[in-house]
Amino acid sequence: MTDALAELGWQHAYSGKVRELYEHAAHPALMLVIASDRVSAFDHVLEPGIPGKGALLTELSRWWFEQLDVPNHLAAGDDLPEVPTEVADRAMLVRRLDMHPVECVVRGYLSGSGWVEYQATQSVCGIPLPAGLRDGDRLPEPIYTPAWKAPMGEHDENITFERSVELVGAPVAAALRDASLAIFARASSLAASRGVILADTKFEFGTDPATGVLTLADEVLTSDSSRYWDAELYAAGGPDRLASFDKQIVRNWLASNWDRTGTPPTLPPEIVERTAARYRELLARLTA
Ligand SMILES: N#Cc1c(N)ncnc1-c1cnn(Cc2cccc(F)c2)c1
């Protein structure tokens, strides 16, 4: 695949856990984001990949970009560089932005790093919360809990809004917060109408150097950048109420087959196929 990319002038620029970023010397204002079939859990990239995952999450990002009435980084126009057919269904051609070093996290429910911070401080990112909340509880209203984009391989660090002002300046910090909360409101409402809870998500924004417009970047509202729960399971309150729509099958299997030391075991074919089916189901339910 990389030969086909190189033959078309694409040069590898950056690797994330499950995605790659490419540049093109003849098109400096464009970049290519390619999603792999790799899946990560417990901070490990697992083997094997999940067939179709990259294409399904790319399709979900594209669909959300269409649903959201905000400027985004998808490239459009005539003189676009060719993308190899081998990766086209899991690739996004995007405009190069001046990226802001803030992960714009919005939480409608208390979970993950928010739950960890809440237990220690009864707050998240400096936002005080009611006492007595449990893991997975819905918050009184969605909260903006930014994180500082840590270098590759390190954990992002939850920061206060005031710290984000120091990082990007007051106007941009406020614009990032307002845009993130507005998009989350729209997306969580749409997901709820499909019986899916959008518990939390992470946006990335940049400023378009050609226009100065704040622009939604990266992937958007995928199950890699968001927590999606099944609304019926959540309402039932059982042990699966916080089951990640797509990764719970993998997490449950690892919990019973790995002691969390060393590298995780290879996923058996049945787990791989059931997980692939869950990615397909999530896309089908959200985009129905
Ligand atoms: N999106 C976007 C983007 C843009 N439109 N303009 C400039 N830079 C970026 C950009 C830089 N790092 N990332 C994260 C990232 C994404 C995908 C794969 C990776 F390996 C890493 C995104």
Structure write-up:
This protein has 288 residues and is α+β, with helices and mostly antiparallel strands. It has two domains: 2-95, Phosphorylase Kinase, domain 1 (2-Layer Sandwich); 98-236, 2-Layer Sandwich (D-amino Acid Aminotransferase, Chain A, domain 1), CATH 3.30.470.20. It is 34% helix and 26% strand. It contains eight helices and 16 strands. The chain has helices at residues 2-7, 53-67, 112-121, 161-168, 170-192, 231-236, 248-257, 269-287; strands spanning 10-15, 19-24, 30-35, 39-41, 44-46, 91-95, 98-99, 102-109, 123-124, 127-128, 138-144, 147-148, 157-158, 196-207, 214-217, 226-230. The strands form four sheets. Strands 7, 8, 11, 12, 13, 14, 15 and 16 form an eight-stranded antiparallel sheet that branches. A four-stranded antiparallel sheet has the order 1-2-3-6. A two-stranded antiparallel ribbon has the order 4-5. β4 (39-41) and β5 (44-46) form a beta hairpin. The chain is globular. It starts with a helix and ends with a helix. The mean pLDDT is 96. It binds ligand PZK. The ligand N#Cc1c(N)ncnc1-c1cnn(Cc2cccc(F)c2)c1 is lined by residues 14-16, 19-21, 31, 33, 73, 94-97, 99, 206, 217-218.
